[in-house]
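Fold it.
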Amino acid sequence: MNNACLPAATNRELRLYQLGIILLLLGLLTGFLLPLMENARMGLSSHLEGIMNGVVLIVLGVIWPKLRLGRTAERIAFGLAVFGTYTNWLATLAAGFIGAGASMMPIAAAGFEGSAVQEGLIAIALTSLSVAMVVVTVIVLWGVWNQGKQVE
């Protein structure tokens, strides 16, 4: 089937399924990398983040056709959802390999602390994804709340 012929909402629904399953797989595969990481506890966090965030994308794909959002809000929600979920997995994965993350995730970091630059980059990633996911949640809530209303 040629996705170019599908309405944007349907195409995004399929993309969310695909990206969710890919992230779920990446999360599962991350579990095999734990023995190679400097901080296996942070790696376990990455493993779980990949699995859970993959499921979040799949669930968003399920409810996507039911959302009543304008085109701009839909694009923003889609982009930020993909950014937030993948960045969550990737930031914790990087922190696991380099043994960093103490500034933002002291429990998962388990005493491991990276250089100021490493900690700063992880903090930027985690802060930006947190804001992104809050925005996504508010937009999706708005789209569900608008059920039955016509939005242009």
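The CA atoms of residues 66 and 75 lie 15 Å apart.
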